[in-house]
Specification:
The complex is a heterotetramer, with two copies of chain A (about 140 residues) and two copies of chain B (about 80 residues). With about 140 residues, chain A is of the alpha+beta class. Helices cover about 30% and strands about 40% of the residues of chain A. The chains are: A alpha+beta (about 140), B alpha+beta (about 80). At the A-C interface, helix 1, strand 2 and helix 3 of A face helix 1, strand 2 and helix 3 of C.
Chain lengths: ~140, ~80, ~140, ~80
């Protein structure tokens, strides 16, 4: 039975992700961590703030995890996203996939983060020195 | 009918939840979208927005029931 | 200046890899962990043993890291391989790449592990119940 | 000339280091490979094997000097 680790958290703990993905039948584990970078389009981001529609976000994250398990025969999946204010270098999202061989865990991990960014109801506001912008809201 | 608003949608209506009583009878997702665009013109400036019914994305032709949990989902930007 | 974290170790510590890859200019971090799986070609592996030609392995790992930094403009790289006896579920290798955006760190991470497996002088012996086999030695 | 042996190469010669004194004068990497295959026939059964000179892969035409660190590298299998 595969293990799904799906959470919305205040702070991402990167230190225990291996324990969540380790599995006797897994030879490969791939993890992606998204963090706050200092520069966006040459303007200085002071901070980011994330909010979510939690019930729906967890439901979508479960769907994405189950799609990936089915497609790549994964033994374990992690999808965790942080909410609240995040500073530079803080992790905001961690996804990971655990499979028998390495091509599958790489492809699955990429799918998890790409699909999370497309579908999961989480919104990011970028705080610059003089303005605040909801990312992707406008064309 | 109660509707939840998130992100920039909340900023546009100025509330995280509204009780809407002047929608047409037996409304669909599309009717709600048109109602919001007519009442708050800033919705037409968004890249797009979706409606969730009971915490799942709902297509335009889905009917809205009185006890559904309805939410307005502006363009997502997690990760 | 990019940070390179290149090591041959007795035991892989997965808990501090984020600290090594975190960087103010990095929005994406990708990590691959290779572990001992229970089944190989339907025969039961009891344990694995890794040995290395350490001076040369470290030199090759540095070359691979520098190639990846140059190609994908990475801010930080991790390449660590364990030696000695390893049991099922134990990590044997960890590689990671940190870059401004996510496509680069995924591609770089895949390059690091694929190229390590091709070039770095490390040898794996599989111990089954009744025999021992040097992996890949024979056609 | 001292030569280091790793992995299955060590098992074939039965030692992790050999001092080889009966190689031709001014040998190249290729001469050392041919010497090993002639003396230990199991080398010809390997998928392949490489020679490292001063801890870098060396091509067949590279000359071997007396003070070089020379190593036999059977097919690698890390990761």
């Amino acid at each position: 039975m595969e293990k799904l680790n799906i959470e919305i958290v205040d702070t991402i703990d990167t230190s225990n992700v291996y324990a969540k993905l380790s599995h006797a039948h897994s030879g490969g584990i791939c993890v992606f961590i998204g963090a706050v970078r200092e520069f966006t389009a040459n303007e200085e981001v002071v901070a980011l703030e994330f909010e979510t529609y939690k019930a729906m976000a967890l439901k979508e994250m479960h769907k994405i995890a189950e799609e990936a398990v089915k497609k790549w025969n994964l033994n374990s999946v992690v999808i965790e996203h942080a909410v609240g204010a995040k500073k530079i270098e803080e992790p905001v999202v961690i996804v990971g996939a655990s499979s028998a061989h390495r091509p599958e865990c790489f492809d699955a991990c990429r799918y998890l983060i790409d699909t999370l960014k497309e579908r999961v109801p989480i919104w990011k506001k970028e705080m610059f020195k003089n303005k605040e912008v909801w990312v992707s809201a406008h064309p | 009918m109660n509707v939840l608003f998130f992100g920039i949608a909340r900023d546009i209506v100025g509330a995280s939840e509204l009780t809407i009583s002047d929608l047409i009878k037996n409304p669909t997702v599309n009717d709600l979208k048109e109602y919001l665009i007519a009442k708050y013109s800033d919705f037409s400036k968004l890249t797009s927005f979706a409606v969730a019914v009971n915490s799942e994305y709902a297509k335009d032709n889905v009917p809205l029931e009185r006890n559904d949990e309805i939410a307005i989902i502006p363009p997502v930007s997690g990760g």
